[in-house]
Specification:
- Two copies of one chain form a homodimer.
- Chain A has 243 residues and is α+β, with helices and mostly antiparallel strands.
- The first copy, chain A, is built from five helices and twelve strands.
- The first copy, chain A, has one domain: Aminohydrolase, N-terminal nucleophile (Ntn) domain (Glutamine Phosphoribosylpyrophosphate, subunit 1, domain 1), CATH 3.60.20.10.
Amino acid sequence: MTYCIGLRLDHGLVFMADTRTSAGVDNFATSKKMFSWHVPGDRMITIMTAGNLATTQSMISLLEERSKAVEERNPSILHETTMFQVARLVGATLKEVIGESADQGQNAKDQFSASVIIGGQIKGGKPTIFLVYPQGNFIEITDDTPFFQIGETKYGKPILVRAYDPKMSFEEALKLLLVSFDSTVKSNLSVGLPFDLQVYEADSFKQGISRRIEENDPIYQAISQGWGDALKNAFQLLPAYKL
Amino acid sequence: MTYCIGLRLDHGLVFMADTRTSAGVDNFATSKKMFSWHVPGDRMITIMTAGNLATTQSMISLLEERSKAVEERNPSILHETTMFQVARLVGATLKEVIGESADQGQNAKDQFSASVIIGGQIKGGKPTIFLVYPQGNFIEITDDTPFFQIGETKYGKPILVRAYDPKMSFEEALKLLLVSFDSTVKSNLSVGLPFDLQVYEADSFKQGISRRIEENDPIYQAISQGWGDALKNAFQLLPAYKL
């Protein structure tokens, strides 16, 4: 499995993805699941993928036009005029790839399935995030649903529900994401470090901060360890339930 | 779905189960999923069920011998000599019920599936907990795996992993369970209040504290609210990840 979050804040967007890919416990590896495109002054687009690795890699290759010679490549993702159009393109590409592998056309339940989070900003529009389904359709983030998760979403959801605030700084959001990822890693073997991070500042139209957070990262270690301790302290603050 | 936890402490056992049953969002109700038997001075046994309600209710009825006239009932669960034998009986009964409904014998993946947590103590043995699979086989709790969950297990697992300690008092364990259940309820519509609680003190061989915790319970409300606040405070204690 996989764990990816796309989060919208008042200041911009934050994306985080793990990098573990596995087909059974004796066949696992590290694989990038976050891909970004940017044209300074015009757009920044980030895609994160979950699901069948053959499907998602093929989709990314098609979006980057890797079927063409290097000098002929001109990815349409860099020419669509709105994020909505980008989401349509990604949805159509995803549906096409799944359909090619599946026996009887596209079938969301089959083993070739995948889902995608796509976010960013194109000049003239606002920063936004879409969740694209294997069927090729998609939903857009709203103020009521300010984040999307794909993959192993359940372990890390409670902390997002409790602590997310659109006014958060990027640093606070990153702390929140690390806690959510750390909770997932501690509970599920199919999600693993390192994590890929992408921060996009609203209306900057440039790539922003992009970083890989390794297992031995001292701040990640401190947050992981500190969160366990902080939880225990938090317990002490709760009222006792007399039996 | 459902959410149930069986937890072993040095002092004894704690069980908690939600009570929401649903077959789609427009068909939900409250249904008991925790059942206890006790013979003072001899044994205390608690069963919690998750999965198809027809299957689990039928299994409980068979265990209680409801197919017989009231005066002829003599549930074998009250006569097995060890908890291991009780787990075998429950596993065999569960497998039998699933097999009756399924087209081609028992199939864990079909819609008649269910799983069961069974715990307690019988004179001569130690307090223990088993997790029974739809196939009728089962695993026993160990020091390395000090709790079992069934149903919607993922949302509430991270806090159990972090904060469980076998030396906890029953009050602390109850606080931990309420936080784990509250995290699940906040993230998943198929788990709902009220919660059923059963506490068993090791070597007491009596029923112990049994209680239903309603949504408007002031301590539950305080823990639910307090946990959100405590989490936010805990965030402040974590080191910042400088970008």
